[in-house]
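Q: what sequence does this backbone want?
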């Protein structure tokens, strides 16, 4: 009788452990709560692209006509031309209509998924957010956008570093070399 009870108990434990593993491996959705119909479609596509996150997240996504007056642009004028940004202080994604809508739809999606990367990886930098976007299916569009953004040899070298995203330590090493060369004015 005791052996039968132990077998039954073992069965229950195995079933419960299997259920727990399934729950842990279940992906959770992200939600982007946009304030403009103009970015609704790209927000839905970004939500669909990021379905494999291990936890549920929700962030506001706001469309601004331009970024010229945002505080970050006062400190770094180049910020005014960025197509989108994640602001940690209010955990929100902002889209810059002035530059965002000049991009292809694929590039727009890659940029929004990149910003989701900033939200999910609060201690990460832009390269981490780029690798996140690649992991969630945006590699081709992001490499194309970054190649154009940085231009010439610099863009090609950055794209080569980003193309190594499947091996984060190699990608980070290549990015660090690129960044040092860019800061030195070599590329």
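A:
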């Amino acid at each position: 009788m005791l052996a039968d009870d132990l077998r039954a108990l073992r069965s229950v434990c195995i079933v419960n452990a299997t259920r727990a593993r399934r729950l842990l491996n279940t992906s959770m959705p992200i939600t982007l709560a946009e304030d403009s119909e103009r970015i609704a479609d790209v927000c839905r596509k970004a939500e669909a692209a990021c379905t494999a996150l291990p936890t549920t997240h929700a962030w506001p996504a706001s469309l601004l006509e331009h970024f010229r007056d945002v505080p970050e642009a006062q400190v770094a004028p180049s910020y005014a031309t960025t197509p989108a940004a994640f602001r940690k202080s209010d955990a929100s994604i902002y889209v810059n209509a002035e530059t965002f809508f000049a991009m292809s739809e694929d590039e727009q999606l890659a940029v929004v998924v990149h910003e989701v990367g900033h939200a999910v990886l609060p201690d990460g930098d832009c390269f981490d957010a780029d690798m996140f976007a690649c992991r969630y299916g945006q590699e081709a569009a992001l490499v194309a956008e970054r190649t154009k953004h940085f231009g010439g040899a610099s863009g090609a070298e950055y794209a080569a570093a980003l193309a190594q995203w499947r091996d984060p330590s190699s990608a980070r090493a290549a990015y660090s070399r690129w960044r040092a060369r860019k800061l030195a004015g070599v590329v």
